[in-house]
Fold these 2 entries.
Entry 1:
Amino acid sequence: KKVNLAIVGATGMVGRTFLKVLEERNFPIDNLYLFSSSRSAGSKVTFGEKEYVVEELTENSFDRDIQIALFSAGGEISKKFAPIAASKGVVVVDNSSYWRMNKEIPLVVPEVNPEAVKDHKGIIANPNCSTIQAVVPLKTLHDKYKIKRVVYSTYQAVSGSGVKGVEDLEKGMTGNPTGFYPHQISYNCLPHIDSFTENGYTKEEIKMIDETMKIFNDYNLKITATTVRVPVKNGHSESINVEFEKQFELDELVESLKNTDGVVVMDDPKNNVYPTAVDCNDRDEVFVGRIRRDFSLDSGINLWVVADNIRKGAATNTVQIAELLLSYDLV
Ligand code: 2RA
């Protein structure tokens, strides 16, 4: 069954990766419609053997036969246009943060809570990249050992900020920072992603905490987070400390991660084997290493988790949600 699919934000970093992933996965598209801001409207994009002209997004853009729309154009565009698309019968998969914590809106990672898509009312939210790569391995451990507490420490690539973040790092490396980040990002680490809130946490830290609870549908989880921007071009790395209710055997825990859909275990420290952002670039899996017991806890583990934040963290997860819509016959 082929569908008519729209992409909103088609010329951005994630938008362009949507196209790459859709093509790689042979997503069954009949007609494709590409939308952007007026700034990029008119540009040409090749998909498959055809060339497409990007149209300016307007309130009438969805007055045509479209079944699915993938959005990655910022919260304000999603706030205004996702409901318009949904009102025309389009199922929207939104990569922005705007709708994620809305009770009516499913927040989905296909390897973790695929069934949640069945509750959609027209809009489905794609979680934050740093949340997605964490919950894929944690789901297996939560099911087996019941998570009590999680401590997230992230080391996030500048591609998470889009082209402006990459530019500030690359130009900063040659002594010409653009001033996009509040401090020099080259040769530096900034404990500041998104904006600070009243309680001293950044919105990025609050996203990881709130989104993890929603995805697991478990609001008893104790979670804290520190999210840091690092001078890495692409790929987020995370140190995750987990405390369990139940005891575990380390070998069995590692085996359960190896058997988890979407997870690749890279863990042989004696031979310097552990995941790094460079190794995981352009991949869709979540890579886990440095798996070791936290001896300061009755039952705890430390993990090092790495994934491509533009692919599994955004574009691929969104396309996988669209695939779920097809497999569940929801479009
Ligand atoms: C970042 N997770 O890394 C945020 C949004 N992509 O900047």
Note: The chain has a mean pLDDT of 98.
Entry 2:
Amino acid sequence: MSDDFFPVPATWAKDALLDREGRAADYRRSIEDSHDYWLERAKRLAWITQPTRTDESSFAEADFNVKWFADGQINVSVNCIDRHLAERGDQVAIIWEPDSPEEEPRRYTYKQVHEEVCRFANVLKGAGAKKGDRITIYLPMIPEAAFALLACARIGAVHSVVFGGFSPEALAGRIIDCDSTLVITADEGRRAGKAVPLKANVDAALHDCASVKRVIVVKATGGAVAMKDGRDLWLHEEAGRVSADCPPETMNAEDPLFILYTSGSTGKPKGVLHTSGGYLLWAALTHELCFDYRPGDIWWCAADIGWVTGHSYIVYGPLANGATTLMYEGVPNWPTPSRIWEVVDRHQVHAVFTAPTALRALMREGDEFVTRTSRQSLRLLGTVGEPINPEAWRWYHHIVGEDRCPIIDTWWQTETGAAMIAPMPGATDLKPGSATLPMPGVIPQIVDGEGQVLHSAAEGNLVIAQSWPGQMRTVWGDHDRFFQTYFTTFPGKYTTGDGARRDADGYYWITGRVDDVINVSGHRMGTAEVESALVLHESVAEAAVVGFPHDIKGQGIYAYVTLNAHEEPSEDLRRTLSAWVRTEIGPIATPDAIQFAPALPKTRSGKIMRRILRKIAEGETSAQALGDTSTLADPSVVDNLVANRVGG
Ligand code: ATP
Ligand code: MG
């Protein structure tokens, strides 16, 4: 993998929140003087009762629990709204950019957000919702989605956001799993100019969900929907009838804030539970440190609110920090692949945070779509979701950021609440493809298959040795699954399920999912390395690599390759790519099979589902063998791959 080095730009080093020494000292303190460190860090939040306790977690079976700030009392919506009113009530809190560039954006000041959220909260109360109830939110990327989260937080209801692209079945499964009593949806959503029938999907889902008593419907497009008497209410009608004041519920730091299901890349999605105090602190602190957030910055996290990235970096982190956060309704490549950069110019955005999958898709279309925009407002660029191939990293840095914007590659999970390993722009020299160093309080370790801790430069399983404030507290309704999934493989540690390499500078490189590690003739290889070598080739847009049984080598390497726009598959190219990987990494990594794939199977959150690719490579293609495919974005992709499998 690339060992190129990009030092902190002088402009950033000058007045960064933390410089190199500052980051190192802060980290040391967070470990050596943890209790006082976290009491002090906790002061960035507005507590009803300031906590005097910090970490009381234990990963040991006997007294297993995750607990932070347990004597603190807080309301999350107050932290995200009310406490900013005196100082920046008239500052824009949310900029909303619609799906179509032909439409006008909308802006909401903190004062306006306060009123919207209070009314929404009163509507929820009027519909019978109370503290501790679960509320499922199935909305498009409209401002009401942010209001809905905050309204739940205000009254102490536990929200469970389900991505608006999920089917009625997937929605029903998530409603049933957490026993929601209320659903918030919209008439329709819009993506890339097409309407998504959200309300109709809810109607279909609710055939199977007896727990739901009320459905609150946002009028988003004005499309025709059926309203069920006694169950369905229009938000705008109800909001006009209730007070614009809603006193916030007093919550314990450990009271649940939300449930969110993981992406389902490696199996059945898990209902991750996060609580109020620790989660909010983690989201706000990492938003400030990783992105060197300063008052007045225009911040854009281009994720969907249906994923943890949207929760932590569109809503909770930025609003807790009093930021201006941009919400975008549409997709990155519609109407053209320039759309993201045009939005940056339109709103003079300082920082964009997106996923490698989006970057690879845009790269594929050529540089012209980027270079025809200005992007002068950009100061830094972020990425999350999958290992970023060094090739994509360099493109993001050079073409998008014109070599002036640090790339903040944040490694984390739904389970970790917010960023765990990431650069800070003024403190961390960058290496393309490395998420670099741990955040305060995070103790990553690399262990071998037996759980032996490996020191200095090493490669193996990435685990976290002790708790951090934003750690998930349980799998909803299945505390045993929580313990079994994350704390039994390597007892006493949190198992991430990801593989990592630590280099001589202590930098971490995520090598892919542990389940995806390939063992060729006794050599263990992460998928990320081989994929990155393939993506480096000028004809390749994206690649996914898996192992399959091989008589001689134990496992062979099977590569699925998506070509750049205007490239044609050929036997010649197949041979070229094989030789290319051989030169880039070594003979051991030479693919045994290369299948050209028009598209790769991805989760709705844009992650490659290698477990399905592994099954296809193994020749196991029954629905049962393919496992849970409910979070697949486009099931037809799988049929194409099965039909064109290499090696018969
Ligand atoms: P499931 O747990 O249901 O299989 P998932 O792991 O894809 O789904 P998420 O919580 O959305 O669900 O994703 C977290 C995973 O994404 C991480 O474990 C890691 O594999 C990958 N990931 C996220 N950010 C990065 C990054 N910056 N570099 C490398 N990998 C990343
Ligand atoms: Mg996971």
Note: DSSP finds 22 helices and 30 strands in the chain.
